[in-house]
Design goal:
Chain lengths: 244, 256
């Protein structure tokens, strides 16, 4: 535990040691605003809820989360600090978890800073705050899924641009598999079970379900299992690089 | 001297490493006892850094065995790494951290607490002369200071085994002297391996020298033996003799 904490502390504070964190947070909030108010039609809907805000989270995360995760391991490899890290007396998985949690916590900070939205909607009407809370939790879980994928990919290369592009593509596949268009394509000629299986792999399916206001244990398990899987793959990638 | 002091602190057997087509290290065996300072010599690309990366557990050997303080680096990596202080080639550092926060991070990971921790951090800062830069970020330090921080971090937990890849590279003459004195003073308590291209360093601090070229062991003995092999009485000349003869016999172009 103390190792994970030490890695977490180092990584988390490193976000704020450079302007990158602040630039990221500004862009994050700006895009959130643009999507909610212009594309989401927040006012026009005349409904006191944050649905137009959460609706775009998957698509924003598709680009914003890989932008955070791309540096996790690529930068360590590029600067050579991975040699410091991996010769310290800690198991690889401690480092993987510490770094992942730091990235996730950074995302939590960015998401918390969207609280003016919540205040606004409560000021304008009386929304169902349990739905909003569930949506926030769903959004965070989804962000964790994106980050775990990105962390694993960034361990594959010392080039951050490559890590970003590959992460976006893989995350996109995870979104796509829940897209009605894609599911319709499979529907009709494949058994319903297959369609369901494909849909159940998607972030969208599970996020949509949580967004309705109820956190189903299956959705929770999905996101946690997904995160565990990709972090495990992350450890495997790092171990494999030792032998190359 | 009791129990495991009898065993060498570092023991390497038939160590081999391939990077695809490149055969970087070819069946090297040697061991280092407590109290020994081993000078690791060889032309560029000889396999010195690769060997050190394997001893410290950063790279996995293709074959062969490494044990550090009685622990196999592949079987018990954590225990072995606890005994090692390592200065990697080029002394990579987390640029955005300050000297002090970096040392504190290492102390966290090394599970150093309370008085002992503070004392050790102060000690290495004094010994390596880092007072003036303690709150400076690592990326803004000069090359020599970066190297010194690397040395400081390797010494922080007072390890039994010290592995330093070109520790004096980029240091000014005074600092070179300081680091050599430091190594000399610690030598009795530890097993130390340093790689270097400065042969006078071998004479000054090492109790033993190893020369490798193309991943093969060419010489293992005391600096005195090495000197006696030289008609001119210069280490440079024996080094050149041994390595060029090796390359000629293998029909390869001389590397250095
Ligand atoms: N990651 C790697 N992938 C492929 N080849 C490598 C890798 N690391 C080292 N090598 C090769 O292994 C050989 C030994 O390299 P190494 O860095 O160990 O040499 P060295 O003795 O430390 O040289 P120098 O004195 O220049 O530091 C070289 O031919 C090098 O090109
Ligand atoms: Mg080297």
């Amino acid at each position: 535990m103390s190792n994970i904490k030490a890695i977490f502390k180092r990584d988390f504070s490193s976000y704020f040691a450079t302007p990158v964190a602040y630039v990221f947070i500004v862009i994050f909030l700006f895009l959130m605003g643009v999507f909610t108010f212009y594309l989401g039609g927040f006012y026009e809907r005349n409904q006191a809820d944050l649905e137009p805000f959460f609706r775009f989270h998957p698509w924003l995360y598709l680009f914003l989360m890989p932008a955070i995760s791309m540096r996790l391991w690529s930068e360590e490899r590029k600067s050579g600090t991975i040699e410091l890290l991996m010769t310290l007396p800690i198991p690889t998985w401690h480092a993987v978890i510490g770094k992942f949690l730091a990235a996730w916590a950074f995302t939590v900070v960015a998401i918390i800073l969207t609280f003016p939205m919540w205040i606004t909607v409560n000021y304008l009407g009386s929304p169902d705050n349990t739905v909003i809370l569930a949506s926030y939790i769903g959004s965070l879980l989804m962000a964790g899924g994106f980050l775990a994928i990105g962390s694993c990919i960034s361990a594959l290369t010392k080039n951050q641009v490559i890590a970003f592009v590959i992460s976006v593509v893989i995350c996109f596949l995870f979104l796509l598999s829940g897209f009605p268009l894609v599911l319709d394509f499979f529907r009709g000629w494949t058994p319903q079970a297959v369609v369901n299986a494909i849909a159940s792999f998607s972030f969208l399916t599970h996020f949509e379900s949580i967004k309705k206001g109820v956190i189903d244990i299956r959705d929770l398990i999905y996101f946690l299992a997904l995160i565990c899987f990709w972090l495990y793959a992350n450890v495997v990638v790092i171990e494999a690089k030792k032998a190359s | 001297m009791s129990d495991n002091n009898e065993k060498p602190l570092i023991e390497i057997k038939a160590l081999d490493k391939r990077f695809g087509a490149i055969h970087a290290v070819r069946g090297i065996s040697f061991s280092v006892n407590k109290g020994e300072v081993l000078g690791f010599l060889g032309p560029n690309g000889a396999g010195k850094s690769t060997t050190m990366k394997m001893i410290t557990g950063f790279l996995e050997p293709t074959s062969g065995n490494i044990s550090v303080a009685g622990y196999d680096i592949e079987v018990n990596p954590i225990e072995a790494k606890e005994k090692i202080g390592y200065l990697p080639e080029g002394a990579p550092l987390y640029g955005e951290m300050t000297v002090l926060s970096f040392l504190n991070f290492i102390a966290d990971i090394r599970k150093m607490h309370g008085q002992y921790r503070n004392r050790r951090i102060e000690e290495v800062i004094q010994k390596i002369h880092l007072d003036t830069v303690r709150d400076q970020t690592l990326e803004t330090l000069s090359k020599g200071y970066k190297r010194r921080v690397g040395v400081a971090h390797a010494l922080l937990h007072d390890p039994e085994v010290l592995i330093m890849d070109e520790p004096t590279d980029g240091l000014d003459p005074n600092q070179k002297h300081e680091v050599r004195t430091l190594i000399h003073d610690m030598a009795k308590e530890k097993a130390i391996i340093i790689s270097t291209h400065i042969l006078e360093e071998v004479d000054a601090v090492c109790t033993r020298a190893i020369i490798i070229a193309s991943g093969q062991l060419l010489f293992d003995g005391t600096p005195q033996t090495l000197l006696e092999m030289s008609p001119s009485g210069k280490l440079e000349d024996v080094f050149r003799d041994i390595t060029t003869r090796f390359y000629e016999e293998k029909g390869m172009a001389t590397h250095s």
